[in-house]
Design goal:
With 200 residues, this protein is of the alpha/beta class. It contains five helices and seven strands, in the order E-E-H-E-E-H-E-H-E-H-E-H. A seven-stranded mixed sheet has the order 1-3-4-2-5-6-7, with helices on both faces. Strand 6, helix 4 and strand 7 form a beta-alpha-beta unit.
Length: 200
């Protein structure tokens, strides 16, 4: 899949106000500051398509982007730490989960996880939520450029061992770096293959 055009469409806190569900859609989610916006920008090769920030919690809305006029990307609020009130964090969670459950054209959730960290409770809980609610997802390990090859292998193995305690098989995963463009080709191929099977 070659991405030749990417444009911001709209921001919402209500899934009912999202763009018409007539195109395949891929959502990006993860802990605050895990690199969601950076990965979207790297995939689209547009530096400022999705807003990035050194401060966690920058994304506070469901942001939709139209890709190649035939695909939607949705940048979702990060879960976990965000420099905002508990009330606001609860609101982020509420409208994000409503979106995930009700968005009928959602093909897959790209769950971004910082590969430098040991398995985090909040990530494992979100994975469990997806499994319980039959929300399709794949894992995107981020920031691989900050690790040595052996560290990447070991940390990936640690996650597999942790998840296999409760799952029969390990979910599909990609190891990525927005800086070095690692894993982008594989993600685009995954999207291309799923788009070819899309029916609404």
């Amino acid at each position: 899949m070659n991405i030749n055009k990417a444009e911001f469409i709209c921001s919402n806190t209500n899934w009912k106000k999202c763009p018409k569900a007539n195109l395949p859609e891929y959502a990006f989610i993860g802990r605050s500051n895990v690199g969601k916006s950076s990965l979207i920008n790297a995939l689209c090769n547009v530096k400022k398509l999705a807003k990035t920030s050194s401060k966690p919690g920058k994304t506070q809305l469901i942001n939709h982007f139209l890709i190649n006029s035939d695909t939607y990307f949705a940048d979702l609020p990060g879960y976990g730490y965000a420099k905002t009130s508990k009330k606001n964090r609860a609101e982020f969670q509420k409208f994000t989960l409503n979106y995930l459950i009700n968005r009928i054209n959602l093909i897959t959730v790209f769950l971004l996880i910082d590969l430098r960290l040991k398995p985090q409770k909040i990530d494992l809980e979100f994975i469990e939520y997806c499994g319980t609610n039959q929300i399709p997802f794949v894992i995107c390990f981020t920031k691989a450029d900050k690790l040595k090859k052996i560290e990447i292998e070991n940390n990936n193995k640690n996650y597999q061992e942790e998840l296999l305690k409760g799952w029969e098989t390990f979910p599909l995963c990609f190891t990525t770096s927005s800086v070095e463009k690692t894993g982008l080709k594989e993600i685009k191929l995954f999207i291309k293959e799923n788009n070819s099977q899309f029916k609404i």
